[in-house]
From TrEMBL:
The lineage of its organism: Bacteria, Pseudomonadati, Bacteroidota, Flavobacteriia, Flavobacteriales. It comes from Flavobacterium crocinum. The keyword Ribonucleoprotein does not apply. Keywords: Transferase. Pfam families: NTP_transf_3. This is Nucleotidyltransferase family protein. GO terms for molecular function: nucleotidyltransferase activity.
Length: 204
């Protein structure tokens, strides 16, 4: 099984971490909130880095300069989404476009966000394993009776992802292609950090 997994990961999987928002409800960059002797963003990156041979990109936007100063992952590419105010879709398009410029042969891409503190490398691995097992084009994380991030898309959906506009996110494609969607369980996937209250509960 280990050999199969290594082959599956080999230069075929991209992981795009979306971190471009301005954290308007929080009032300060959520990406840089302290967590586990690190930050929320660095925690997500550290878990993604455990996926061998995956190409990892971080899409920044509103707080690009501040985040870049705190960045210490030379093996990861930072993509600045200058159009971050146009919504989540612009970060998806920017991240996927840059990923395909770097690796045109990428076969699948996982989109993750920076404010799910309980994400682990096992979530990323399980998405890939489930896709390999079911051959479904979309593998989403299941929590709180919904499907969401992290979510894996096969390359056959890259064109549709690149055509997303406005506030449209990956969930639009999950709903549209429900017959080609499978899921994995992500315990505590419903926990994300949008407000000071959310953060206080996390660290208390």
């Amino acid at each position: 099984m280990r050999c199969r997994m290594k082959d599956k990961f080999q230069n075929k999987t991209g992981i795009i971490i979306l971190a471009a928002g301005n954290s308007s409800r929080l009032g300060r960059p959520k990406q840089l909130l302290e967590y586990k002797e690190s930050t929320l963003l660095k925690n997500t990156i550290s878990e993604a880095l455990k996926i061998k041979n995956a190409l990892i990109l971080v899409v920044t936007g509103a707080n690009h300069d501040t985040i870049q100063k705190e960045f210490n992952f030379p093996e990861i590419k930072i993509c600045l989404n200058a159009d971050w105010q146009n919504g989540m879709s612009s970060s998806i398009v920017k991240g996927l476009s840059d990923l395909l410029n770097i690796n045109p042969d990428c076969e699948q891409c996982i989109f993750a966000v920076c404010d799910q503190p309980f994400v682990t490398n096992l979530i990323f691995e399980n998405l890939i394993i489930e896709q390999d097992k079911t051959k479904k084009g979309i593998i989403a994380s299941a929590y709180s009776e919904t499907l969401g991030t992290p979510v894996l898309f096969d390359k056959k959906y890259f064109k549709e992802l690149l055509n997303l506009t406005g506030q449209e996110g990956a969930k639009k494609l999950i709903k549209k292609h429900s017959e080609d969607t499978a899921s994995i369980s992500f315990e505590k996937g419903n926990v994300d950090i949008d407000t000071e209250d959310d953060y206080s509960k996390l660290i208390s």
